[in-house]
Amino acid sequence: MESTEPSMNKFISLTVILALFAIPLISHSQEIRTGGESSDFTLAVKLYNDGMYDLARAQFQHFIETYPESQLSVDARFYLGLTLLSLHRYSEARTTFQNFAMTYQDHPKAPEAWWNVGECYALEKNYREAATAFERLTVFYPKSSRAPEALLNAARYFIAVKDTDDAKQSLRTVLQNYVSSPQVVTARMKLAEIMASQGNLAAAKAELNRIINTTSDPEQKLDAQLALVSILDQAGELDQATNLITTLSKQTNAKIALTSGLLALSLGDAEKAAAQFLIASSDVHPSKEISRKPQ
Fold it and tell me: What is the domain count for the chain?
């Protein structure tokens, strides 16, 4: 019987040769697949940046389905939410962002995802849920740079549904937990406004005086002073209101003139009120000289 050893040796040699050729082919295949992920993602982002949102949406969805285990698929999910938001598909965008925030809680964009959930609810005019979403951002990510502004948004939407208690709580959280943030003055102004609307004029004045005595921003100080004039007027403390507005009127400013006009109306001085309103109108819409270029 003829020996099969030479044939076997040839078979083994052929197998080894094919295997050696296959190694670079497999490696090349992996490079193509990786390159495909990168190029597909880059294409989707470019479509989004170019404002081609329908195409971008389809491309991001294709990417997520094709490369579910890719590191880029997480970013693709966030971009998909942004794309749906740009397409005004608010319900789908909200769900996408909410799923992202709950699935990738440690991702750097998780706070922004909650922010976008709030924005979507607000665009759907569901203001209570919008306020709750912004609050969630601050509960889950209290150290986020977005947290103070999120609390201001929560307060605004609570006010929209006439929930002043929760609005005040959100504003007080800004004052207590984010004392160094730029949003503190805005929170204090809004808190004073709510208190004044509820008839708690003493507390409103106290908040405004704290702004006046602590802020280094002249515009913020002026806004607080003008708000204080209105509250003094509301409280019947007309002498103090008049003294303050007289001091402020040394500056030429539309907001000062408008507040001065309103105070003049309270005092029954219609002529002065009209003059101040005219100043305010002129400052807001200044006349422009027509310059003629030589022909």
Answer: 3
Residue 103 belongs to what domain range?
A: 47-124
Report the candidate in 117, 115, 179, 176 with the shortest Cα–Cα distance to residue 141.
115
Q: Enter the pTM of the model.
A: 0.76
How far is residue 224's CA from residue 130's CA, in Å, rounded to a whole number? 28
Domain boundary among 75, 90, 124: 124
Instruction: Give the tens place of pLDDT for each residue, 151-193.
Output: 999 999 999 999 999 999 999 999 999 999 999 999 999 999 9
In Å, what is the CA distance from 214 to each residue of 164, 175, 209, 218?
26, 14, 8, 11
Same domain, 51 and 118: yes
Q: Which residues contact 79 (CB under 8 A, 6 or more apart)?
A: 44, 45, 48, 56, 60
Is residue 273 very low, low, confident or very high in pLDDT (cuts 50, 70, 90)? confident
On whether both 108 and 172 belong to a single domain, the answer is: no
Residues 138 and 164 reside in one and the same domain: yes
In tens, the pLDDT along 107-158 reads: 999 999 999 999 999 999 999 999 999 999 999 999 999 999 999 999 999 9
CA distance linking residue 181 with residue 150, whole number of Å: 12
Which pLDDT value is given to residue 5? 54
pLDDT band at 254 (very low <50, low <70, confident <90, very high): confident
